[in-house]
Amino acid sequence: MLLAIDTSAGTSVAVVDPTTGRPLAERSTEDSRRHAEVIGPFLAEVLTEAGTAPADVTGVVAGMGPGPFTGLRVGIAAARTFAAARDVPFLPIVSHDAVAADQSQGGPFVVLTDARRREVYWSAYDQTGTRIAGPGLAKPADLDEAIRASSPEAAGWDRVTVTSIPAWRLGSLAADTLASGGSFADDTPLYLRDPDVTMPGAPKRVKQ
C-alpha cells in the first residue's frame, strides 16, 4: 500500500492501492493553517479505515509543493519520518501534477494555488496533462507575463484554481511511475522563495 501526504495548500492524506491506483481511504481539509494539528489524526484515520497497518505500507508519497514554507514542511517531514521509520521508499511528486491529473476536462490549462503574500503558485499543462512550464511564483497582476516568459502559448490557457491537493492522486501518480520505472521529482521542497522567518542579525550596541 502507498501512503500519500500533501500539505502544500490544505492538508490531504490518503492510502492508495498501488495495483489499481485507487484510494482506499482519504482525509482532507482546505484549512491552510492547521497542518500540524490535523496531520496526525488524518494519518491514523486513513490507516484504520483502509484496514492497513503501518507495516503494510510499501512507500510514502509526498507532495513537494510548490507551497508556503511553514505548511509544506509539515507534510514532507511527516512523510519522511514515516518512510524512515518503516524503512520504505520516500516518493516525491510535484503537488500541482496531482491537480492536473484530477481534471476531468482535457488540457491545456494552468494550475494555480495560493502562495500567500498576495501571490500565487502556477504550473502550465498541455493537452496531454504534461507539465510544460513551472512551478512558478507571481503576483496575480503579473501572472500572464510570468507564464508568457516561460511558455508564450500558455498565457491564454484556462486557469484551474484549487485550495487543496488530492493526495490520492499523488499516490496514483506514484503507482504509475513505479509500474513504468519512471523517475520521481527531485527530493527538494518547492518553496520558491525564502521562509518568512529569518535569522536575527547581530545585536545592536547599546550606548550609555
**Strand order within the widest sheet?**
3-2-1-4-5
Integer-rounded radius of gyration: 18 Å
Strand content: 25-35%
Total number of helical segments?
A: 5
Q: Distance between termini?
A: 66 Å
Which class do the helix and strand fractions yield? alpha/beta
Can you summarize the main beta sheet?
Answer: 5 strands, mixed
Unreliable spans are none
**How many DSSP E strands?**
9
Overall average pLDDT = 94
Helix content: 25-40%
> Secondary-structure element sequence?
EEEHEHEHEEEHEH
Shape: globular
Organism: Curtobacterium pusillum
Domain Gcp-like: 32-144
GO cellular component, one term: cytosol
Protein name: tRNA threonylcarbamoyl adenosine modification protein YeaZ
Can you characterise this structure?
With 208 residues, the protein is α/β, with parallel strands linked by helices. Helices cover 30% and strands 27% of the residues. Strand 7 and strand 8 (131-138) form a beta hairpin. Helix 3 (95-101) packs across helix 5. The mean pLDDT is 94.
Nutshell version of this structure?
InterPro entries: ATPase_NBD, Gcp-like_dom, T6A_TsaB. This protein has 208 residues and is of the alpha/beta class.
Question: Key features?
Answer:
208 residues, alpha/beta, five-stranded mixed beta sheet, four-stranded mixed beta sheet, 5 helices, 9 strands, 27% strand
Topology:
Layout: E1 2-6, E2 11-17, E3 22-29, H1 35-50, E4 59-63, H2 69-86, E5 90-93, H3 95-101, E6 109-116, E7 119-125, E8 131-138, H4 143-150, E9 158-161, H5 167-180
Parallel strand pairs: 1-4, 4-5, 6-9
Antiparallel strand pairs: 1-2, 2-3, 6-7, 7-8
Helix pairs in contact: 3-5
